[in-house]
Amino acid sequence: MSATLRIHRGLCCKERVLTIGGRAVGTLAEEVNDFDITPGDHVLSLNLGIYHSVPTHVRVTDGTVVEFKAVENPDALLPILQGGFIKLERIPPVRADA
To answer: Rounded to the nearest 10 degrees, how much is the dihedral formed by the CA atoms of 70, 76, 79, 84?
Structure first.
């Protein structure tokens, strides 16, 4: 059982590391990066040294592709306390009949 987590790098540098549940799974080396993920509830973050994004909670089901894009965090007045200058924003799935 697995699903795909697709991260669009957006404004992030190639060295940003995706962590799932605190475990590093890979960098955002490409404009669009695919990662295998197990079904269930997960917490995602993009890290670069001491810098990190806003933690993002996601529920993934078997066989699905879940997409996110790294975007600016408009609430980042105090990024160390609020989770950073960037966050992951969910990209809604495209319906097959649309």
So the answer is: -10
Q: What is the DSSP letter of 72?
A: E
Classify the C-alpha dihedral 34-89-84-38 as positive or negative: negative
Q: CB–CB of 58/66 below 8 Å? A: yes
Going along the chain, which residue ranges are E strands? 3-8, 17-20, 23-27, 32-37, 40-48, 51-52, 56-60, 65-72, 86-91
pLDDT one-digit tens code per residue, 35-51: 999 999 999 999 988 88
Q: pLDDT tens digits for 23-39?
A: 999 999 999 999 999 99
**pTM metric for this prediction:** 0.85
Q: What is the CA radius of gyration of the chain?
A: 13
